[in-house]
Amino acid sequence: MAVLPLHDAMHEQIRAAVDVLASGGVAAIPTDTVYGLAANAFDESAVLKIYELKGRPEGMALPLLLSEAEEVRMCAEKMPQAAWTLMERFWPGALTLVVSKSAGIPDIVTAGLDTVALRVPDHPVPRAIAKTLSAPITGTSANLSGRPALTNAASVRREFGDAIDFVLDGGDALGGVASTIMDISGDKMRVLREGAVSREEIEAVLGKELR
Q1: To pair with 7 at 20 to 30 A between CA atoms, which of 18, 30, 162, 194?
Q2: Domains delineated in the chain
Q3: CA–CA separation, 149 vs 155, rounded Å?
Q4: Is the pLDDT assigned to residue 181 strictly greater than 90?
Q5: 97 forms bridges with which residues in the sheet?
Q6: What is the sign, positive or negative, of the torsion defined by CA atoms of 81, 86, 91, 94?
């Protein structure tokens, strides 16, 4: 998928979103799949706002978005070679990798688990925000828990009203299909949710079948 160019007005919105996140707020932003709710992943109070906004149970971990693959080093304790193989093929893109988390990731992000879900999206907006903020951002879908994912700013505003600090209008989300989630944190790799990237595509890259 081609990376869209950013015009001046979009740069202004990105700066506004970064200011909101830097001050502990929450912004709704477009991604390559659906609209997401972004907060600074290192800010526990901001992450708590995500759970409260969505009505999401705190026992459900939140995925994180990065600006580039190298940033996994600030989030992950260890990365198997298969992870780098998958990142090289599918990042930026719609594959979320669940890996062993580093000590710097707050427990509220991972629901107390020792793993964290990471992705580099194929969209310039979340990547620019994470890069400028110098921190990973949350990437959970911008919808109330249990409701369908949303693909444009207008629908996000209808869903949440004034509860979100900032809604970045980047047009329609490019994909509309949630990312595939793959757990590679243990001895056995497994697909937890099949989405925009098919199991067959992953198996072809790894050269093996997955359960």
Answers
A1: 162
A2: 8-206 (3.90.870.10)
A3: 10
A4: yes
A5: 118, 182
A6: negative
